[in-house]
Specification:
It is built from 16 helices and 17 strands. It has 438 residues and is an alpha/beta fold. Helix 3 packs parallel to helix 4, helix 7 (185-195) packs across helix 13 and helix 11 crosses helix 12 (284-296).
């Protein structure tokens, strides 16, 4: 009997895989490198074994292993076909499959020729680009994986939560480490804001030097392997300047939550002397190419603007958020400014985890940080560090009060003493919201 290694749970994503087990669609797990995709496949394998599936029915292949460095789509097909078990379904797990040329042809052939259930991962959205749509269109389901949420961060670092009632009835979350020592939840949250949610941090501990070394490795791999090397293989030559790429990354990291455009990025980099170009600033087309590969590598996510009154998406001035706040701190250094935008970044990805489509709202000349919608609900959300100032309170309330529909409106803040209801607008502590069930 196989000995099951213990992996830390990623229940949200595992349940999504289990929901599609033994169904036709190819399960495609995507996300930035080192966010836990490989471990998720291992967790799914353990689920199958515990569910009575035999080890001989499971084939696992990680294409970053040297064992498969010369493998092609044809040899992959033969490798799997030779291991098919007569009369039994195969469960195929392919990690970082984009490294195999013409991989999509092999996957399609497996679907047709073998009784199998297929799970694949990839660290680049190019995996599901239009070039492959003729093979997998309508036949795959994408599970988008992110670094750890704050609740997962607590669990992975072996913190336990316990509710404690205050004299006036407000419940505080108390946090205990594995030795039973109590910690201030705000201090633990600060550690999350400082180091981010990459699962690998758990293995090295919350020591700044070690965390920075880990983040440096992740960043370098994303930039070199998932962007520059892949662009070179594509042979289009649109993204080949490593210095310009790094400058664009730094600009976006420094401007999370700000409205930006490709033209503004190029002009800013030129005006501040961050890039030298005898022909002037890079063209809008060039900057757009660099933005596209950063989105494809899942290091940044773009949020479109939505005109609430006009009920349409706007083409200009979207916003960008970085997939892990620890990576931002690695790039820019640890600093306290822009704290409101850092909270926005955390809230945006929590909304994505909870299954919402997210847009930036515009109503007249005012802005709502997030409009979060799914099949069942719509929520308007503002994020601010504090509401203690009357000016800030009015600024944050004003756009929400202009909206005339009856969908929930919420302000998330670090304050604990401003929580309550302001003319139908609910104010919540952001840490409590992150720890809630959504």
């Amino acid at each position: 009997m196989a000995i099951l290694r213990e992996y830390k749970p990623r229940t949200l994503y595992l349940n999504k895989l289990i929901a599609f087990q033994d169904k036709e669609p190819v399960k495609v797990v995507t996300g930035i490198r080192r966010c836990g995709k490989s471990t998720l496949l291992k967790l799914m394998v353990q689920h199958l074994l515990s569910d009575g599936i035999q080890l001989e029915q499971i084939i696992e292949m990680n294409f970053e292993s040297y064992d498969y460095k010369d493998m092609t789509a044809d040899s992959l097909y033969r490798y799997v076909k030779d291991r098919a078990v007569s009369g039994k379904r195969l469960y195929l797990f392919f990690d970082e499959i984009q490294r195999i040329p013409r991989w999509e042809e092999a996957i399609n052939a497996f679907r047709i020729d073998i009784d199998c259930d297929i799970y694949i991962t990839g660290s680049n959205a190019y995996l599901l680009s239009s070039e492959y749509s003729t093979y997998l269109s309508g036949r795959c389901v994408e599970i988008k994986m992110l670094p750890l949420s704050f609740k997962e961060f607590l669990s992975f670092h072996q913190f336990r939560l316990k509710e404690s009632e205050r004299p006036l009835g407000h419940a505080d979350s108390l946090v205990y480490d594995q030795s039973g020592e109590q910690h201030d939840i705000r201090k633990v949250f600060e550690a999350y804001l400082r180091y981010g949610g990459m699962p690998g941090i758990v293995d090295i501990g919350l020591e700044q030097e070690n965390v920075l070394a880990l983040l440096d490795g992740i960043y370098s791999t994303v930039v070199v392997r998932d962007i520059l090397e892949r662009e070179a293989r594509r042979g289009k030559g649109q993204v080949s300047d490593a210095i310009l790429l790094r400058k664009v990354i730094h600009f976006l990291a420094d401007n999370i939550g700000n409205s930006v455009s490709a033209n503004a990025i190029g002009n800013n980099l030129s005006n501040e002397g961050l890039i030298k170009n005898t022909k002037g600033s890079p063209s809008v087309h060039t900057i757009q190419s660099y933005l596209s590969v950063l989105l494809e590598a899942y290091i940044f996510y773009e949020v479109k603007r939505f005109d609430i009154k006009g009920r349409e998406y706007l083409r200009t001035l979207g916003k960008y958020y970085i997939v892990d706040i620890g990576l931002r701190n690695y790039l820019l250094g640890f600093r306290d400014r822009d704290f409101g935008h850092i909270l926005e970044n955390i809230v945006y990805f929590e909304l994505i985890r909870r299954g919402y489509d997210v847009a930036v709202g515009k109503i007249d000349t005012l802005e709502i940080d997030f409009i979060a919608t799914n099949a069942l609900a719509k929520n308007y959300i503002q994020v601010t560090e504090s509401l203690l100032s009357e000016d800030v309170r009015q600024r944050e309330l004003a756009p929400l009060m202009k909206i005339r529909d009856n969908y929930p409106k919420t302000i998330l803040t670090l304050d604990r003493f401003t929580a309550g209801n302001y003319e139908g607008i609910e104010v919540k502590n952001v840490v409590d919201w992150l720890l809630g069930d959504g």
